[in-house]
Amino acid sequence: MAAGALVAALAAAGVVWLNTGDEPPPVATADQVVDVPGGPGEAPTVRLDTRLYLPESTPAPAVLVAHGFGGSKESVDDDAMELARRGFTVLTWSARGFGRSTGRIGLNSPEHEVADARALVDWLAQRPEVVTDGPGDPRVGVTGGSYGGALSLLLAGTDPRVDTLVPLITYNDLGQALVPNSAQREPVDAGTPAVNAFADDGVFKRSWAGIFFAAGMGGAGLADPAGDAVEEGTEDDDAAEAAAAQAVNGPGPRGGGQQAPTDPCGRFTPAVCAAYAQIAQTGQADEATMALLRSVSPATVTGRITQPTMLVQGEQDTLFGLDQADATARQLAGPVKVVWYTGGHDGGRPGPELRAEIGEWFDFHLRGIGSDPGTGFEYAVQGALRAQGSPSVRTVTAPAYPGVGGAAPVQRRPVPLAGPEQVVVNPPGGNPASISSMPGLGSVIGSSSRLAGRLAVDLPGQSARFRSEAMTQQLLIAGASTVRLRVSAVPGTPPPPGGAVLFAKVYDLDANGVRTLPGSAVSAFRVPDLPADGAPVEVTVTLPGIVRPVETDHSVELVVTTTDQAYQMPAQPAAYRVALASADLAVPLVAGVGSSTAPPAGPLIGIAVVVGLVVLIGVVAYVRRRRADRFEPDLADVPLVIEDLSKEYPGGLKAVSDLSFRVESGQVLGLLGPNGAGKTTTLRMLMGLIQPTGGTIRVFGHSVRPGAPVLSRIGSFVEGAGFLPHLTGRQNMELYWAATGRPVEEAHFAEALEIAGLGGAVDRRVRTYSQGMRQRLAIAQAMLGFPDLMVLDEPTNGLDPPQIHQMREVLRRYASTGRTVLVSSHLLAEVEQTCDHVVVMHRGRLVAAGTVEDIVAGGGEATFRVDDPQAAAEALRGVGGVDGVTVDGDLVHADLDGMPRSRALKVLVDAGVAVEQAGPRRRLEDAFLQLVGEEPQR
């Protein structure tokens, strides 16, 4: 009862402590209507509903934050607050036709929405809270997602006063985004990773286009042709509009809503309405529609954008794929940094780390603070699901976006495909249709992209399949693959007037045949002028831009279908033959350095409660631990003694059984064993992270228990490095040491950092580190304070051969001071060269322990380097019990069957043979395989 009351009190204290901590910097906001000129069919003046966010200190550089389609200034309130708390003056607004702004939607028309943004820059130039670079020239950046991202590009390309920009998940060419064609007769220029054919005569992406049109049909602030504003209505948005806006922008707050108007064009300008009607009714865009879509696309101005640009694009995005950002990166005239992240229209908004990176971009380019973000390329690789349900993610960083700004073009690996020519049929009306993605559903599924990727369905008779062999090593696809196809009409079934419409996609097939469609992505393409007599036409098809690690034993499968429910298909029935014109799928590979993200932290209050409980439990158990720690004076100088150690889990699983071994001072001991041998479980018990079921662990004579004081004499790298990514390497080490409560002078920072060998990178943020750099920093952290016993789990992971050699020398030097090193590793050759003693485990039990030389020599096989190999072989064959004598150049190998090598040497010397060298024949790997029940491969 008393303990329970104390727990509750401590937890409550944690909450109070959090609530009395530092508050975020104050941000003041002010709403104001800004008048801008109206367009055709509108009142002379359009009213823009704006909000100004003022930081704690002004004047400050400004950032314009534009919202996505279907949103309003309320949609970007969180993003604006984050930037304002960083010290920027931020301006948001509801674009004309949205929220409480009047006017009609022109899809980022240069004469309307883009002109509105320039007028807002004029307005900022007059504000005393904004830093200016000259009369009428505010220091200003611009950002926004999707519709707002395109506005960012269009504004920067038409207004040189914009100093920098960060467009997110947006388009380069709206025509190619909504009416794509990913095939052309000639091979595609493959200089950049996600380049697309961007050919004419595309296929209408009707599902996403319909969501856009629905989002523009109703809402607030619409001005009718007479110029009078329609009544703004209530805060409750029309359900269909809200669902459409959420699909386009993701969940979040929205502005006030309004009843849907009776005008069939809704809030759109007549030109936009006519273009949608034309393409929705015919299924193909005419010249006027494509001209309009092109006129409102960033592609018209990207060649004039010289400002530093950070392009952020989502890898889970069936609306605006990676190919759109790829095109923009190629066209920009100024420096560009490209970031692909795991979200998008189907996967969610950027997380806190990426948003912080965007903030740092503005810090440097608008305020001149922080380090230069550079012009590199980052892409996120999503791995398996963790136990917590969230996927693991690692970021690969390259020095530049391949094929841009003088950077070398992307490397492409040919992956052979196999499969015969196949006939596929387009049913009447294109129904039933295959399913690759469900626009709008992806935003609900969010990060569960693996689930979304398994919802794909390809109907029999409509699909041709071509498959690779199983991978022998991981294949990391980073961008858009290409394939050369041969398409022909089946005689008697003439193709539709517009040509053959087909859809291509790449699946990841695991060893059990489970198929996953990465990013739920598909490439639509049209083959016009297909001869009715069956003559084939060859085209190069660009597959969707994806990031996918195809694991060992997995295969890739190319599927070509005649239907896809997200697109407009020809109503006329048709049949086609589809074959591989080239057997290879050209897969883009982008080399770089990788770093892993830690699992997302829980709410701070929960952390405070957990910390409080841990502290309480430690205090309550302190006396028990002292009593349990029966010191053994005879072992005071022995680093580690394990006796009869066992660990059994519920269900009867024994991870460790009756394990006993001893480690002496000055040893470098290797703990070896196959997967599941119990090595990591043993190390975790040694570190006091889990309780053994039986047996004892003594470190320098003291029993090991969670929180035991003797653990301070152990330096470890067992559970992985839990570095804070926003801090530098040096700051992480200092923070770690401060948590020990020991004096700074005992840390030996300089020596440990010299061991890390990171140079100036030690003062960079850890999120910029490669895996090898993190590994070296983790080992240096384990060496802080020069512990008497250092425990390392796979210390050479992520290190290249020179770094492994350096690590080997470091561990040997460390042990030569009288300290002890325990290394768990699967690299047998490294253990053989680094360690002097070995403990071999198998299925939780000890199978061998001793010096490396004894373990290796245990098989009785020996090798002698001699001057007369034939005479030596004859002499050894004459000794009883010696078998398997073979000659290999000047080497003679023999199985001594337990006879000491010294006796064999005497036999050779007595025979008049000069022996230059004698030693065991086996490697540690051979001995290890024999000990765990596998035969060495010769």
Written description of the protein model:
Keywords: ATP-binding, Hydrolase, Membrane, Nucleotide-binding, Transmembrane, Transmembrane helix, Transport. GO terms for molecular function: ATP binding; ATP hydrolysis activity; dipeptidyl-peptidase activity. This is ABC transporter ATP-binding protein. Belongs to the ABC transporter superfamily. InterPro entries: AAA+_ATPase (IPR003593), AB_hydrolase_fold (IPR029058), ABC_transporter-like_ATP-bd (IPR003439), ABC_transporter-like_CS (IPR017871), Galactose-bd-like_sf (IPR008979), P-loop_NTPase (IPR027417), Xaa-Pro-like_dom (IPR000383), Xaa-Pro_dipept_C (IPR013736). Helix 1 crosses helix 14 and helix 8 crosses helix 9. The N terminus is likely disordered. Among the domains are: 179 residues, Sandwich (Jelly Rolls); 222 residues, Rossmann fold; 62 residues, Alpha-Beta Plaits, CATH 3.30.70.100. Strands 1-2-4-3-7-8-10-11-12-13-25 form an 11-stranded mixed beta sheet, with helices on both faces. A 6-stranded mixed beta sheet has the order 31-32-33-28-34-35, with helices on both faces. The protein has 938 residues and is of the alpha+beta class. Helix 10 links the parallel strand 10 and strand 11.
